[in-house]
Amino acid sequence: MPKTLIAVVLLAVSALAQAGSKSIDLPPDGVQLKPSILPGYAKAQAICAACHSAEYMQYQPPTAARPYWEAMVKRMKTVFKAPVDDADIPLIVDYLAKTYGNEQSK
Ligand code: HEC
């Protein structure tokens, strides 16, 4: 595929993705992680907020289940060298699933 065609396809895909999502007003500052009494909250604050704001978590599907979050945390560790102890992964995954995923109490 020529480069321009690829660009057009990418634009169309991102336009479609935006059309399907709700519009959200972003707060001016970096989004903070949602506070929680779960032990994974402090871990996530210390580890996950180092590189990016909590917007990234906020934009994950609320239907995302535990394995999704686990894969995410492991990807952050292996791909981006996030300093996550293997022992802390279940705590962080627990916090993420219950705060941003399909285990949120409504
Ligand atoms: C060393 C830096 C670093 C740390 C620490 C880090 N991330 Fe990331 N994260 C990134 C980068 C870079 C991206 C964007 C790249 C991409 O989209 O593939 C990203 C993207 C994301 C996304 C967006 C979805 C995606 O697949 O791109 C989520 C969700 C996320 N991170 C969650 C986490 C969580 C949870 C933690 C804590 C366990 C964490 N991150 C720690 C660097 C980091």
Task: Please explain how this structure is put together.
The protein has 106 residues and is mainly α. Helix 2 packs across helix 5 (89-99). It is built from five helices and no strands. Helix content is 54%, strand content 0%. The relative contact order is 0.16. The protein has a single domain (29-106), classed as Orthogonal Bundle (Cytochrome Bc1 Complex, Chain D, domain 2). The mean pLDDT is 87. The chain binds heme C. This is Sulfite:cytochrome C oxidoreductase subunit B. It comes from Limnohabitans curvus.
> Architecture, according to CATH?
Orthogonal Bundle
Q: How can the largest sheet be summarized?
A: none
* Overall SS class: mainly alpha
Low-confidence stretches: none
List the bound ligands. heme C
Order of helices and strands: HHHHH
Could you tell me the number of beta strands? 0
Count up the domains: 1
The helix content, as a percent range, equals: 40-55%
Give the terminus-to-terminus CA distance. Answer: 47 Å
Organism: Limnohabitans curvus
InterPro entries: Cyt_c-like_dom_sf
GO molecular function, one term: heme binding
Keywords: Signal
